[in-house]
């Protein structure tokens, strides 16, 4: 069983899970996605018995759960980083804080087609994936043990799942991740000073200046951040203010599927099929007690962060928190805009 331990200095929670690595040999293997033969892939249609039971399935009404015929399929990962069964036990060990590894770790299979990558899916199929993100967040928000739900995707790297079949992942946690807390605190500070959402201010400036704007449509803007941590990092934000991704509308989901596919295609073609990750940052599940983030509905803004995996972190970055980006954001945006 995994557990969460809190760094007493910076407040970062770390998941300790001895089940994920069984020997030192696992650390020396290439960290690349493993291309699995469709005949043995557990994510392919007809292999539903090779996974845990279906939590959510988008499928025609005449098909049955855990049977072929689905468009999107969601099930718990095995082995899971966090486990949904059990009580959240908080305890102190001397000066240290820890809790049981309670949460949810789910796989969202993006398509029944083993060979298609995310960018090769139709706009309609990607829209279904986005809707699955929404539906799972809404369902897990009902569990009072969970404070945060993170959606993420790894492409072209080994995320601990031995198949290349396109999929996304969901992790529900009993704590708010430190990276999200930093965004919440920064947004609140800006709002307290200017009574405006900092994300809305950023979108306004990026869409007017266009120096770092990669693409936009009616509902979304995609741009390289002013202080991008990684080469060709891209943020996608809704133009209309909303802190909660689960309130996305049908029209927004359609536009998000188009701009997400388009941006990923630009990275795919322009950077020669790079590995990448993307993460969805939405608001915490429950408004915190007291007044810590009482303005969250007004100052926080959900967004997607896309990170091409072009560089490995160095000792300087790991030791200082400084990121070294050799590609100026303006140059990255200019280059990506030329790719159709």
Q: Can you describe this structure?
A:
The chain has 340 residues and is of the alpha+beta class. The chain folds into 2 domains: 3-173, HIT-like (HIT family, subunit A); 180-337, HIT-like (HIT family, subunit A), CATH 3.30.428. 27% of the residues lie in helices and 21% in strands. It has helices spanning 25-28, 123-140, 178-194, 198-209, 250-270, 296-299, 315-320, 329-337; strands spanning 3-6, 13-16, 54-58, 72-76, 90-93, 96-100, 104-109, 148-155, 167-173, 213-216, 220-223, 234-238, 276-281, 303-308. A 10-stranded antiparallel beta sheet has the order 3-4-7-9-8-13-14-12-11-10, with helices on both faces. A 4-stranded antiparallel beta sheet has the order 2-1-6-5, with no helix packed on it. The chain is globular and about 50 Å long.
């Amino acid at each position: 069983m995994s557990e969460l331990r809190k760094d007493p200095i910076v407040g970062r929670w770390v998941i300790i899970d001895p089940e994920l690595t069984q020997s030192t040999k696992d650390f020396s293997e290439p960290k690349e996605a493993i291309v699995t033969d469709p005949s043995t892939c557990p994510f392919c249609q007809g292999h539903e018995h090779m996974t845990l039971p279906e939590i959510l399935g988008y499928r025609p009404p005449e098909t049955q759960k855990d049977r072929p015929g689905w468009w999107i399929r969601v099930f718990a990962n095995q082995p899971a980083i966090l486990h949904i069964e059990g009580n959240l036990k908080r305890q102190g060990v001397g000066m240290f804080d820890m809790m049981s590894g309670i949460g949810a770790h789910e796989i969202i299979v993006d398509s029944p087609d083993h060979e298609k990558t995310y960018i090769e899916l139709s706009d309609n199929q990607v829209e279904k994936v986005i809707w699955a993100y929404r539906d799972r967040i809404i369902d897990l928000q009902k569990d009072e043990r969970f404070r945060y739900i993170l959606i993420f995707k790894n492409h072209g790297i080994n995320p601990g799942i031995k198949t290349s079949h396109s999929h996304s992942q969901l992790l529900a946690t009993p704590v708010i991740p430190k990276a999200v807390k930093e965004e919440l605190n920064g947004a609140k500070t800006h709002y307290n000073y200017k009574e405006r959402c900092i994300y809305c201010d950023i979108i306004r400036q990026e869409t007017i200046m266009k120096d770092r704007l990669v693409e936009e449509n009616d509902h979304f803007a995609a741009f390289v951040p002013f202080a991008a941590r990684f080469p060709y990092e891209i943020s996608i934000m809704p133009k209309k203010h909303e802190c909660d991704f689960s309130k996305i509308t049908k029209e927004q989901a359609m536009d998000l599927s188009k701009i997400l596919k388009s941006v990923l295609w630009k990275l795919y073609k322009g950077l020669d099929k790079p590995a990448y990750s993307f993460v969805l940052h939405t608001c915490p599940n429950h408004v915190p007690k007291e007044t810590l983030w009482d303005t969250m509905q007004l100052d926080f803004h959900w967004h997607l962060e896309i990170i091409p995996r072009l560089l490995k972190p160095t000792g300087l970055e790991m030791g200082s928190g400084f990121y070294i980006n050799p590609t100026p954001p303006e140059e990255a945006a200019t280059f990506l805009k030329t790719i159709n």
